[in-house]
Amino acid sequence: MATPQSDTPLSPLRTVAVVGLGTMGTGIAEVLAAAGRDVIGIDVSEAQAAKCVAALEASTARCVGRGRLTEQQRAELLARVTTGTDLSAAADADLVIEVAPESYEIKQQIFRELDGVVRPETVLATGTNALSVTRLAADSAHPERVLGMHFFNPAPAMKLVEVVSSVLTAPAAVTAVTNLALDLGKEPVAVGDRPGFVADGLLFGYLNQAAAMYEARYASREDIDAAMRLGCGLPMGPLALLDLIGVDTARTVLDAMYAASRDRLHAPAPILKQLSEAGLTGRKAGRGFYTYEAPGSGTVVEDALTPREDGPSAEGRPVRSVGVAGSGTMASGIAEVFAKAGFEVVLAARSEEKAQAAKARVGKSLSRSVGKGRMTAEAAASTLDLIRATGTYDDFADVDLAVEAVAEDLEVKRQLFTTLDKVCKPGAVLATTTSSLPVVACARATSRPQDVIGMHFFNPAPAMKLVEVVRTVLTADDVHATVREVCAKIRKHAVDCGDRAGFIVNALLFPYLNNAVKMVQEHYATLDDIDAAMKLGGGYPMGPFELLDVVGLDVSLAIEKVLHREFRDPGLAPAPLLEHLVAAGCLGRKTGRGFREYARR
């Protein structure tokens, strides 16, 4: 629960009216009261105002139970909140925060009425995340005092507040609201007026693409959500998040974004309209992309779309030994994963020296695990003994599964698959770890395309739990079953997807990263503000520019180009700023400079 910072100058905004007492308005009221503000809660519905009071009583009681508040502090907090249904109650407020439904008509009516109620110096803030603050301000008698104050749900827990200025907003109003956000223990980010602002502007494009991916039946809802959680470290998958936000809310935000940008990535996926009009708006309705125990519940229950645990339709082929082709970090990581699971591993590279170096890298990784108490020295030694390093692919003659992890270059991979086709025994499964290239192109380089499949591991392979299993139109059912069984044995979570650019994770991740670059390119927000917004407002483990510098700008650009070339969507064209940085040799941490500069090691 937010409390005022003792060493921060208090904002002059001491009495705050909150108009609209739904979930967000109630949360904002709690944050304000916890920070010592007098709060006037206003809602057109008496029942909603009473519901707000009950929610505050329950929330603060939980805080007492957890030792975060004393009974006296709770009583004082609740006493600072009054509720009613008449806007005239806001007459003495220093700040009014409007959190009414996302409708220009409703919000403009509230601002017109407030003009006749509040003092001329009272600041008026809208909590919109989709509508134009400028348009709302222009209709006010005092547009200079109108701005946006966008909290994130749940307001008591989420640290980010986007402070949105229009061209009409007075700097003094921005300063007052920014100071208030700091007093509340929040981290304010200053942004300009455009639909979605920073966090939602990046988030909703990604959510929309996930909905479109599901609608196209490219992957199941469970696999899309698991892929983004496990592949990107996100707290929730995109379809589960759409259900939490509200499918209708998401559609409204995207409509506003598309009206302003005309970017096809923001054009709401038809399924959002279909679900909204059917009343299947997510958790609040008890059903959206998923089905829930009851309206308002977060507990998912089985429905007709829930995957059945009947096992694969085909029986997999036996796999005892695995060949791993390559000498880089990914190859050594995959070799370690298989050896830890008890498979015999042949680690082959273009030379004996490179292969031995890759095996040595595995040894160092295992030693680190021993040092951290994750395995015994004996287990590490026996694991390493399962790996045989070699400088020739001829040693793949008896492997049951060959996994290539060589350079992300189609011609290099095709040549390798031609070699594997000649070397590997009949019935061996041939897998590529490509993250962006067509698996079928590797398959067609062999005389047995039915035996070829994609196994996209994530880096670092020993730590990352996800494997994208990529079937081509030629992949045999028993090959797919084999790889699913192998993933279970190596304790990886397999998700199924088809053979198209980016698969699940990269197809959703990289357009989001590209859009972040466009924001900086257009001078809409700074690197630091965008990174902070996505970590604090979206729960991302890293901001987009931190992640770009880690992945490598050259790698990111290559994937963006593949996505743009395959889907032919103008919105997927790589941001010129990204191209310029790559051309200048600024590739991220590996070169000491990308979007930020790093100390040379």
What can you tell me about this protein's structure?
The protein has 601 residues and is α/β, with parallel strands linked by helices. Helix content is 44%, strand content 14%. The protein is built from 22 helices and 18 strands. The chain has an eight-stranded mixed sheet with strand order 3-2-1-4-5-6-7-8, with helices on both faces. An eight-stranded mixed sheet has the order 13-12-11-14-15-16-17-18, sandwiched between helices. The longest helix has 20 residues, at 46-65. It is elongated. Residues 196-292, 502-598 form the 3-hydroxyacyl-CoA dehydrogenase C-terminal domain. Belongs to the 3-hydroxyacyl-CoA dehydrogenase family. This is 3-hydroxybutyryl-CoA dehydrogenase. Keywords: Oxidoreductase.
Mean pLDDT: 94
Strand content bin: 5-15%
> What is the makeup of the main sheet?
8 strands, mixed
* End-to-end CA span: 41 Å
Q: Count of DSSP helices?
A: 22
Percent helix, as a range, is 40-55%
Radius of gyration: 27 Å
Number of strands: 18
Helix and strand content put the structural class at alpha/beta
In the sheet with the most strands, the strands line up as: 3-2-1-4-5-6-7-8
- As residue ranges, the low-confidence spans are 1-10
Q: What is the 3D form?
A: elongated
Pfam families: 3HCDH, 3HCDH_N
Family: Belongs to the 3-hydroxyacyl-CoA dehydrogenase family.
Organism: Streptomyces griseoincarnatus
Protein name: 3-hydroxybutyryl-CoA dehydrogenase
